[in-house]
Structure formats: C-alpha cells, structure tokens
Amino acid sequence: MANDAPLHRDIRVLGDLLGEVLVEQCGRRVFDHVESIRLAAKAFRADPSPETRAALQAAVSAVEPEHRNDVIHAFSVYFQLVNLAEQNHRLRRHRDYDRSQQVLRGSFREAMRTLAHRGMTADDIEALLQEVGIELVLTAHPTEALRRTVLDKHTKIAAFLEEMDDPRKTPRELDVLRERIRTEIVALWQTRSVRKQRITVLDEVRNGLYFLDQILFDVLPRVHQKLEQAVEEQFGRQLLELPPLIRFGSWMGGDRDGNPNVTSDITWQTLVLHCDLALNKYEQKLRELGRDLSVSVDRAGADEDLLASLGHENDEPYRALINRMLERLSNTRKRLHGERVDGPDYASPDEMMEDVERMARSLAHHRGQRMVDAWLRPFLLQLRIFGFHMVTLDIRQHSGVHEQAVAELLQTAGLVDDYASLGEEERVRILSECLASPRPIRNPYHVYSDLTTEALAVFDCVRRGHETFGPRCVQDYLISMTQGASDLLEVLLLAKESGLFGWPDGPKAPPKSDLNVVPLFETIEDLESAAGIMRSLFENPVYRRHLEMRGWQQEIMLGYSDSNKDGGYLTANWSLYMAQKHLIRLAEAYGVRIKFFHGRGGALGRGGGPVEQSILAQPTEALRGHVKITEQGEVISQRYGHPGIAERSLESSAAAVLVGATREDTEEWAERHPRWFQLLDRASEISFRAYRKLVFEHPVFLEYFHRATPIDEIGRMNIGSRPSRRSQSARIEDLRAIPWVFSWTQSRHLLPAWYGFGSAMEAVMREDPHALDDLRRMYEVWPFFRTLVDNLQMALAKADMLVAREYAQLAGAAGEAIFPLVEEEYARTERAVLDITGYRQLLDNRPVIRDSISLRNPYVDPLSFFQVRLLAELRRDDLSPEEREAELADALQTINGIAAGLRNTG
C-alpha cells in the first residue's frame, strides 16, 4: 500500500541501524548468524516443508552457546524497534486525517455526527454527558515484560522518529537524528532487558504513576477540549462546566488478592505517593502560570475583589495571587505529611479551584478570555479530575480472608463459636444483626491473629486516607471469588468496625457508609449465580440502607480472565453478556443503578482486544451510566506510552461510550430474535463441554501444559510483585489466569482465546439447517457477536499450529495425545469463522493487522525455535547449575522477544 511507504522506510532505517550496531557491538559472526537464521525463517514461512524446517533448526543449532544470547537479543530488539515504527505510523496517519479535515473513525466528531443523526439535540448531549463516564483502572498484573528503563529508551527513539517526518529538516539534520537513534539503539542493546530482581509493590506503584505524571495529566484536558469542540462544531453550542467524562483509577498498592506483599502500610505509602504527585503537578502548573500571567493592572485592569484581597499595591495581581497559592500549597503538603503548618493551607481541592476561578473571572472581565481558555480551564479540569488524591485506589481482597477475620471477631465477642460451619442463610442473619446494631464487636484490648489484625488495618488505612486526602482517594472495596451475599456483608461489617459504616446518630437515623462494596464474579458458575446473590442483598434491609447512602448505585465487577480459564472463550463471553442483562433487569426492579466494572486483560484470552469495540459489544443498557475497565500490563504502555497515542486511545474509548449508551436499534433488534439467544445458549453449552473435556478432564492435559509451554520459566521472570499461583497446588484451578494465557501465547497456541468455538458452531449448524444464516445475520448487525467473532479471528491469526507443533513435541506421549485434538479444533474454528463472516481468509476485514502479523512471523519463528530448544535443554536432569542458569537466561530472553513480536503477553 502506497500510504505504508513511510512505515516500511522507518522499519528499513531502524533495521539497518540495528545491523550496524550488531556488528559494532558483537562482531560479524553474530551478525552472520542473525542473517542466516532470518533467511531460513523466511524460507520456512514461504514453504513450510520438512526441508525448510530442518534448515531453520540447523541455523538455530549452529549458534554457539556464547553467541546465543546476543542472537536472541537481536531479534527481540528488532521487534521493539518495529513496534516503535508502527506506533509512529499510527500518529502519522492521525495527522494526515487532521490535515485533510476528514472525520476520523472512532473520534468525537464522528460520535457527534452519529448522535445528531439519531435525532439528539444539544440539550440531549448535555444531559447525556451528565450521566455517562468511563473510568480506566491501571493494574499491576505481571504482563509488562519490558522494564521501565527500556520503555524510557523507546520514548526517546519514538521522539526522534517523529522528528524525521518534519519536511523542514535538512539532510544534515536528518543525519544527526539518525545518529541519535543509533546511539539510543546502542544503549538499548547494552541494557538488560530482563529484570534481575523481582520488582516491589512500590516499584509497580511508581511505574503506574509515571504514565499519569508524564502523559495523562496533560492529555486528559486535551481530550475533554476535543469533545467540547466536536459538540460545538456539530450542535453550535459551547458546553462548559461539564463533569469529567474520563477518570483514572489504580489497583497498584491496593490489590492484595493472593499478594502478601501488599500490606496496609504499603497501601498507606501508595496513597501518600499519589498525593505527592498531585501536589507536585499543581506546583509545576502554578509556576508555569506565574511565568505566563504577566498581566499588568495598568494595561488591562482586574476585578476589584481580587485587588482588594491582595492589598491593591500589586501591579501584577495574578502573579501575586499565584505566589500566595504556592505558599498555601506548600502548607497543604506539610499538613498532609503531618508536619507543623504556619499559615493558611488548602483544606480541599475545591478551595484551590476557588482561587483559580477568581483569576479566570477577573481575566474574562478584562479582555483575557483567550488566556482563560488556553491556561486556566485545563488547570481547573485537572483539579476536578485529580484532586489531591491524583488517582482513586481500589482495594481488592479474597472473600476467604474476610470470612476468617469475621469468624475471629464474632468468636472473641462471644457471638458465634464456629462461623465457618454456618450455612449462608444463618451467616446473613447474624451479619445483618451485627450491622444493624450500633454496638462494635471489635475489642481494642484483644490481640487478634495476624490475618485479622491486617484485615482490620486495611479498613483503618482507608478511613485515615479519607480523613487526610479526601473520600475520593479510595472508594471501592472489591471482593474476589464472591459466592454469596455474606461475602459483601462481611466486608461491610469490617468497614463498620473501622468507622467506615455505622449509625453515628442512632439506629433509627440514616447510617454513614463511606465505601462501595463491590462483588467480583469470576467463574461461569458465579456469573450464573450473580443475579440471585444480588437479589438477596437488594432485599436485605441493612444493605438497602447502605445503598441509599451510596446513591442507590451498586458497582459489580465481572472477571473476564478467570471465566475464560474456567469455561473457554465462547461460554465466558456469553455468560458475561447474559449476566449483565439479568443484573440490569434485577436492579431496575429494585430501584438500583448498576455500574459494571469489566476486568479485562490485555490478551485475547482474557477479554482483550480493542477497547472501543469491547464497549460497543456490551448491552446498551449497561452503558447508560458509568463504565469501569481495567487497563493491564503491556496495554498500559501501548495505549498511554506516547501523548498522541494516549489522546487517540482515550478519545475512541470515550466516544464509544457515548455512541453505545444512545444506541437503540441493534440491541432491540437482537432482543426481537429469540432464536439468536437460543442458538448461543446451545452453542455455549457445547463449547463449555468441549473446553472442559480437554482442559479439566483429559488425563494428560496438565502434563502437556507444563511441558509444551514455558509456564515454569515465566514464573522466574521477575515481571510482577505477585506470585503466579494462588497456592502451591499444581492444579489449573489454582493457577492465575495471567500466566495461564501468557504461556499459551508464548507457545503460539493461544488456546484460551478460541478453543471450543469450532465444535460449538459445527454442532449447531449440524442440528439446525438455518443456523448458519442466523449466524451470518448476527455477525452483520449485532455488535456483541461481531466483536466476539472478530476477536476470535485475531486470536486464530496470531496462533500458529505450525510452530505450536514444535512445542507439542516437547511433551512426548502427552503431546501425541493432546496436540491432534488442538489442531483439529483449530481447523474447525477457522472453518466456522470463515463460514460466518464470508471471508476468504482470516482478517479480510482488517488487512493492515493481517499483513503486520504475516510480516512479523518470519522474525518471531526464530525466537520460538530457540525457545523450544532451550526448554528441551532445561528439562534435562544432567545440567550443571551454571549451565542451567545460562540456559534459563536465554529462555527468558526469548520470552521477552516473543512478547514484543506478538504484541501480547498475558
């Protein structure tokens, strides 16, 4: 494609520079190995015969042990550079759209045209923006295989690439830029790409704050300004003072489920780090404003009340006010750190906003509206979004921990001897009585177990955070593995014992409730039980009082990762979709609004895929309010690592919420076709059985998984603070979904993202002669089903049975038993997708992505062949400790490279 010529130029320039660096750093021998392997891999892709396979294996085997790490590193760095080139090309295409004045797909301009076409007015848009919003939650899941220092180098190279597009650059200036890129590639080459030590929780917190500090703090106001411009362009009205459409949250430092390293002390330190960043950013902003607002009273005048508050002697009143604000901000920092304060501070962000608004009013009254729009309105929006808390921290813990803590509290209070042995109905009765009583059950003089002491300390930390940083610092407490109403009431009781819930004015007065209690439904069974659990809570008098104090809104988190691991791709997606519909209908009957929190991963096997498509695939009624979505692992750096990419990503996500929340046609149309729901019910049932039969029932599947994937090596990667298993058990049920998906991605199976779909489609088409026509129509008009199939296409295109077969051979007899089943199901699934879509090959509707995958494969294949060889070596019993350490280092290097090549980890 002609418009891809600049991309191919960038890749060629970066590839040539890497080759030169390779010769300079490692010598001609390593370079020749890389070239011979590259050519052999291209031949293997062009003609995957036994001869070309043997030639590729021979080229890989020919690399001497002392050169192997360098050769693997070369392919890994190449993919990092290609990814930067593709990122730069995305930005280039966005600029081309802007220059041509075309309406970009997924933009606010397109969204406003769509809403106008639906008959909406400016008043409707204003009302809509008061109701809807999107919250993106950064999580520390261990799927970012690249180190922070490597990402920093990527940022520099990306900036130089962008500069090379400037048509004003002279040949001499372009040579200088190329030399700067070469220098960064040398630094990248000499930087360890795999962490030597496992990172700490606070490292993860700082990594997350990097994106807020460097990118999102300034990008979010620009995105909101684009929305305002699109509304004004389409509807001819300026909409000011709207609530922020986009907010950010975080799990880093708050998610303690299965991570003993996240303690109450770590959570407190996290809240302090959040606040420090917010105050630092405001101080920087005020100093910038002090330089910019050099307005003189003699030249422009100022409001009398502003001048009077400053003593009338100031010729530059805005600078004088800013200096006072800096003093108050400094005092605020001292107060929040528990230091002695001499002089006024800011009790809340609202007080600081009042000072900024005074400046804005005065400037507007004296011909300074342009300065207000350019400098003060973005600052006011930042204050509204980030407050003094910077980002809202979620707390998450496993339901079993709360059960044990509550059992001990009840026992020591003499209320229940053996809470764990009680049935659900009796638990709910006892918990409701405790919650309805103003009497505490926590004994301040009793020494509780470490588990209970820490569980209570977390709630104490939240209360202290609310008192210090404001209630927005922590709002939601999530309960993983929710399986009954008692799981939520236990958390409410622990909150009560720490002063976050209670009856300060007596049991007949309204209670206080300072924390949202959020169930997380993760397995297929839990999703099916969700409506029943919530019904019992909505009917519980004490819980309804809690909901009343929280504005009659109930947040519910849906787990995409564990539901997929539990039931397979089709069943998980259908169960999630239907759970939302059931929960919405239930909530409406009880006068409650549901806010869904979608626990999506970056990988396709964990609910990944384009966020905007995922949003539009939800039931329409689920988008009429606030939507919350996790942003995990490598997705964070891909979506928010560059200001231009971040701006576009946020715009497309927010635009999808606006379009999806006002959609009426497709969802109602689907509802009028009950055959579709029946068809997917049946398909889900068949898919579930096929998936469970392989993954949980086949006697050698677990052995195959451990031998045909690098699951054990991934556990050694130091890419997150959390253990990869919930316990020491080797069962699949106890393995976290992230390393589960990461392992299948590395071995090129991507099994969780497609297995079972082919069997299901084949069966329903065999049972019903009209099923294929229905499926084709569903794909054509129903966003949910179209997204489901399109994400499946992506997974099938990234999976590669040719290379997966190499991994299967590592498993011996288990491989001979399992791989034919996998290969057959892959073929069935591919046939089904092509039948439904009518395409001749996968991703016919997304040729750019299809071509990118096909261009990457010849460079990913060598890393896969190296990895297979290294895994075979590591499984030998006769390796010396030194040999094993060297082999493992090389294997970890291949994991990094394949992750970069496929642009997916877990």
UniProtKB/TrEMBL annotation:
<protein>
    <recommendedName>
        <fullName>Phosphoenolpyruvate carboxylase</fullName>
        <ecNumber>4.1.1.31</ecNumber>
    </recommendedName>
</protein>
<keyword id="KW-0460">Magnesium</keyword>
<dbReference type="GO" id="GO:0006099">
    <property type="term" value="P:tricarboxylic acid cycle"/>
</dbReference>
<dbReference type="GO" id="GO:0015977">
    <property type="term" value="P:carbon fixation"/>
</dbReference>
<dbReference type="InterPro" id="IPR018129">
    <property type="entry name" value="PEP_COase_Lys_AS"/>
</dbReference>
<dbReference type="GO" id="GO:0000287">
    <property type="term" value="F:magnesium ion binding"/>
</dbReference>
<comment type="similarity">
    <text>Belongs to the PEPCase type 1 family.</text>
</comment>
<keyword id="KW-0456">Lyase</keyword>
<feature type="active site">
    <location>
        <position position="565"/>
    </location>
</feature>
<dbReference type="GO" id="GO:0008964">
    <property type="term" value="F:phosphoenolpyruvate carboxylase activity"/>
</dbReference>
<dbReference type="Pfam" id="PF00311">
    <property type="entry name" value="PEPcase"/>
</dbReference>
<dbReference type="GO" id="GO:0006107">
    <property type="term" value="P:oxaloacetate metabolic process"/>
</dbReference>
<keyword id="KW-0120">Carbon dioxide fixation</keyword>
<dbReference type="InterPro" id="IPR021135">
    <property type="entry name" value="PEP_COase"/>
</dbReference>
<comment type="function">
    <text>Forms oxaloacetate, a four-carbon dicarboxylic acid source for the tricarboxylic acid cycle.</text>
</comment>
<dbReference type="InterPro" id="IPR033129">
    <property type="entry name" value="PEPCASE_His_AS"/>
</dbReference>
<dbReference type="InterPro" id="IPR015813">
    <property type="entry name" value="Pyrv/PenolPyrv_kinase-like_dom"/>
</dbReference>
<dbReference type="GO" id="GO:0005829">
    <property type="term" value="C:cytosol"/>
</dbReference>
<keyword id="KW-0670">Pyruvate</keyword>
<feature type="active site">
    <location>
        <position position="141"/>
    </location>
</feature>
<dbReference type="InterPro" id="IPR022805">
    <property type="entry name" value="PEP_COase_bac/pln-type"/>
</dbReference>
<comment type="subunit">
    <text>Homotetramer.</text>
</comment>
